[in-house]
Model the fold of this input.
Amino acid sequence: MRKPVLLVMIGVAGLLLVRNLLVMAQLPDEVMQGAIFRIIFFHVPAAWTAFLGFFAALVASILYLVRGNLKFDAFAVAVTEVGLAFGAANLISGMIWGREIWGIWWTWDPRLTSMLVCWLLYSGYLMLRRAVEEPTQRARVSAVFSIFAFADVPIVWFSIKWWRTQHPQPVVWGGGSMDPSYWNMLFLNWIPFLLLGLVFVAIRMRQESAKREIDAIRRMAHAI
Amino acid sequence: MDSRNITFMFYGLAAVWAVLAIYVGMLAARERNLKRELEGLRHMVEERK
Amino acid sequence: MRYARQILTVAFKDLRSELRTKEAVNASVSFSLVILILFSFAFDPSAESTREFSGGLLWIVFAFAGALILNRSFARELQNDCLDALLASPVPASALFLGKSVANLLLLLAVELVGLPVFLVFYNARIVGSFWTLFGVMALATWGLTVVGTMFSALTVNLRLRELMLPMLVYPLMIPCLMAAIQLTTVLLGEPSLDAGQMVWLRFLVGFDVIFTALAVALVDTVLVG
Done:
């Protein structure tokens, strides 16, 4: 994507975030949690962005295997990496919230555990890419891994859910019902996250094509 | 600790943006390295020609 | 029919070459013994509480021992370009993969059958449920481990850091399978039979096996042949 388009996207994201922060400051504190509940407006959209990224990686991986175009591979790395960044933001903000509300940094609750396993799987994806030199082989191997990883995530989620029901369950989100204004806030905050994510993906994809150019020039230099 | 948990709210929000800032830093560093490598290679090819 | 024979031929070939050298099995058995001994220092092995995580202990040992066997599975074929010869043969890649998975399953089961009695003796445990149910659980879970592991053995065979990459990639994928196995094994080591709640785990294990076998068979062609 062109530079001005990216800059406009960053600008829109920034404006929306400022607006959301102002609205958020006016929301009354949650009864049980106090002011800290506002973390949810960043925590949850970050998770959505991460999972959307991993899903996009799955689609791109399948498309790469079908079509064999390295563009899809570049897209798959870009979305996976951005997904990991947002996943890390989700995990760390969640841990800070947990420290304050549950009194512990970490609990082996299904959501936390599956997110962590998911994060580990996809960081394995990036490590796998580093270990393969040849571009088409790298693309093929990592596409297959991405499909396996995505198939594993829901299985992990269900298994951990059943596993923990055998034990006393830790408290998650108190009740479970949310005020509609909270939902609005979540979606409104998701938009800047998505815009930022798209900008990152675009930059990352350009870097992949720069890498391919470097490889091409190397080969040419070899030939002369 | 204050009763409204304001401090921890700021820690949480700061953490989200810190993680994203670190990622942007990583992207920028990679961009710089790639640019340098590309320049160097182009230079080398020019000289050989 | 022909497909089944091809699978068995590959499996027998792998088993025969492994039994001649015994390098992977020997390493795997002694490694699992070492881990079993190491675990005894981590906590009191004679304590009653050990029973509660006996399944977990056993399966972590098996998963570690399995990585040694799985690492060798495709790497063995690299010498003298055996892998290329196998792929050039009229055997389809999926039959090659399934044959290797069957061989790995039998080898890993053999290692487990050595490890299990040692564990029972060292940790003063005994199988309260029926041995055959436990064996069935072991076979199902081991198939889950080997089918994922053999797939990734094929995936990482040409990689620089093969020995490091395989466990790194495979263990997180195996988590659901290991969880089901741990759950069922712990129950069978302490109670006479599985109740309805645990049957869900058994079905889950079968589901895991089916999903990943299908996925691996569908994708192994692109991995090996490209």
About this structure: Residues 3-167+182-223 of chain A form one domain. The CA atoms of residues 58 and 147 of chain A lie 6 Å apart. Chain A touches chain C through 29 residues (CB under 8 Å).
